[in-house]
Amino acid sequence: MDTPDSPPLPDVAPEAEDDAMAARASKSAYNLSQLAYRSVSEAIHARRLKGGEMIVEAKLSELLGISRTPLREALQRLEGEGLVVKVANRSFMVRHVDFTEYFQSLKVREILEAEAGVLAIGKLPLAAMGRARRELHDLMNATTYHTDAHWRSDDSVHELFASCCGNPVMAGMIKSLRVTTRLFEISSLKQRLKPDSDEHLEILDSFEAGDPRRVRKAIQGHLRSLQKFALEIVTH
User: Fold this and answer.
1) What whole-number distance in Å separates Cα of residue 149 and Cα of residue 53?
2) Hey, CA dihedral for 64, 96, 30, 69, is it positive or negative?
3) In whole angstroms, what separates CA 91 from the centre of its chain?
4) Domains of the chain, with CATH numbers?
5) Fewer CB within 10 Å: N-end or C-end of the chain?
6) What percentage of the chain has pLDDT greater than the value 90?
7) 69 in the Ramachandran plot: left (φ > 0), alpha (ψ -120 to 50) or beta?
8) Beta strands, E only, 62-200
């Protein structure tokens, strides 16, 4: 029995093929840029790249196995976030934050975050609140201290109420100031585990209570505690 011929494949316009290829190339470039962004960001936060250290693009691109184009795109993004700065000859350097800038940034955070907290009362998602509590519980009960877990828990609490304050400008300023204070290198960060955790729990408790005065006091008290700790480190 004769079988019918298979229907011919539809012609694909050259323009469509070009568009598809361009889309795949764009996606690949984006993925490489994302890889570079995450890698450099993590290296900065983990202090493998320290404040004031030059970023050698040729060495880094070879290490990551990517070209310098997606790496440069990632560095430009990190520059916009305040983690790196551009220096001579179009090179990049990890941003250095000294004690004065750190301390002054904490003072401004004390004002802005307390206000953001009051504005966020009644707006915090219950699921996010629960997740922040679980992270704090895990952090305090861990047998081994991990800096990244400490920072992750810190982010969960502070970003929670900043993002829910209803004022995007204020939230953006807080985010920028948190980048600054995180870049300041505290060698004895582990000493802050207990006070940070207790103070963060009080912040979450104050939100559950819905008391503006308690929320403001909890946030201000936490940031003043950080200021006191920083002064003790510098003067000893």
Assistant:
1) 24
2) negative
3) 23
4) 14-94 (1.10.10.10), 99-235 (1.20.120.530)
5) N
6) 57
7) alpha
8) 84-86, 92-94
Place of tokens 């750190």: 102
Q: Which residues contact 119 (CB under 8 A, 6 or more apart)?
A: 165, 166, 167, 170
Q: Is there a contact between 113 and 200 (Cβ–Cβ < 8 Å)?
A: no
Could you give the CA distance from residue 70 to residue 65 in angstroms, rounded to a whole number? 11
Question: Is the alpha carbon torsion for 21, 23, 26, 27 positive or negative?
Answer: negative
Is 153 in contact with 132 (CB distance < 8 Å)?
A: yes
Distance CA 128, CA 125 (A): 5
Question: How far is 78 from 41, CA to CA, in rounded Å?
Answer: 7
Tell me how far apart the alpha carbons of residues 122 and 126 are, in angstroms, rounded to a whole number: 10
The model carries a pTM of 0.80
In 3-state terms the chain splits into helix, strand, coil percentages (rounded to 5) of 75, 5, 25
DSSP class of 185: -
Q: Round to whole Å and give the CA distance between 185 and 76.
A: 23
Q: What are phi and psi of 54, to 5 degrees?
A: -70, 145
Place of tokens 């969960």: 156
Count CB-CB contacts under 10 A for residue 178.
19
pLDDT digits (tens, 9 = 90+) for 123-179: 999 999 999 999 999 999 999 988 888 999 999 999 999 999 999 999 999 999 999
- Cβ count within 10 A of residue 154: 20
In angstroms and rounded to an integer, the radius of gyration of the C-alpha atoms of the chain is 24
